[in-house]
Specification:
It contains five helices and twelve strands. It has 238 residues and is α/β, with parallel strands linked by helices. Helix 2 links the parallel strand 7 and strand 8.
Length: 238
């Protein structure tokens, strides 16, 4: 188990906050973009630590810090603790970073689609920034980000900047409860499936978000002869 200190809270949107932690026992954290950490918190009123997994939203940058973005869930013990109780300077215990929800070693021979909802964009933010910072060659990457309204979009300016800087990267926000914004409308699945149905080659599809979103996506891709691990990779956080 490792110790981290909360150094910053950034209220990205009303229900999505960014928490920046520093691991003071290390000069830098070595991890692979897309991995997660397991947070252990001693929450008032709970007899045992509350444990949750969160994808790391930052990328390996030579520092000893890592960032998490958390969606507030009423009744969620960890999210209520992070939104209502924890303060800058407080310590938490964690394991990791760890996991295999990472990029293939070679991403030049196949298109990659990232599909996310809410804070499920975390590992994709890590991956795209890692690619950008390290000038990693890639074929084509499309990031589909589903949320309800414009005000719920996280890392908007950052992804728009990366889209301008990386000629083969496309950022596609999709809003399910707001129209006439200039963004795609409806459910996120429709927009990448429309592209897949017109394509000749299968992309590698990554899903991160709530279980129901991922199950819907897997069902649609299975009907199109996509296979787990070969064509689909998933990270479920609820």
């Amino acid at each position: 188990m490792e110790v981290a200190v909360l150094t910053e809270i950034i209220k990205e949107t009303e229900k999505n906050w960014r928490f920046v932690f520093e691991s003071p026992l290390y000069d830098k954290l070595d991890f692979v973009a897309g991995q997660l950490v397991q947070i252990h918190a001693h929450i008032p009123g709970e007899t045992a630590p509350v444990v949750r997994n969160y994808s790391v939203a930052s990328w390996p940058d030579g520092t000893n810090k890592f960032e998490l973005i958390v969606t507030y869930l009423k009744g969620g013990k960890m999210s209520e603790y992070l939104f209502d109780y924890i303060q800058v300077g407080d310590e938490i215990l964690y394991k990791g970073p760890m996991g295999i929800f990472t990029l293939p070693k070679d991403i030049t021979d196949r298109d990659i689609y990232f599909v996310s909802t809410g804070s499920g964009v975390s590992p994709f933010r890590s991956m795209v920034n890692y690619i950008y910072e390290n000038k990693v060659p890639f074929k084509n990457i499309k990031l589909f980000f589903g949320t309800r309204r414009t005000e719920d979009i996280v890392y908007k300016e950052e992804f728009e900047y990366l889209e301008k800087e990386l000629k083969n990267f496309e950022y596609i926000p999709v809003l399910s409860r707001e129209k006439d914004t200039g963004f795609k409308e409806g459910h996120v699945h429709k927009h990448y499936l429309d592209i897949i149905d017109k394509a000749t080659d299968k992309p590698l599809v990554y899903f991160c978000g709530w279980n129901i979103m991922i199950e819907e996506g897997r069902k649609e891709l299975k009907a199109r002869n996509f296979q787990m691990m070969k064509d689909i990779r998933v990270e479920i956080f609820g």
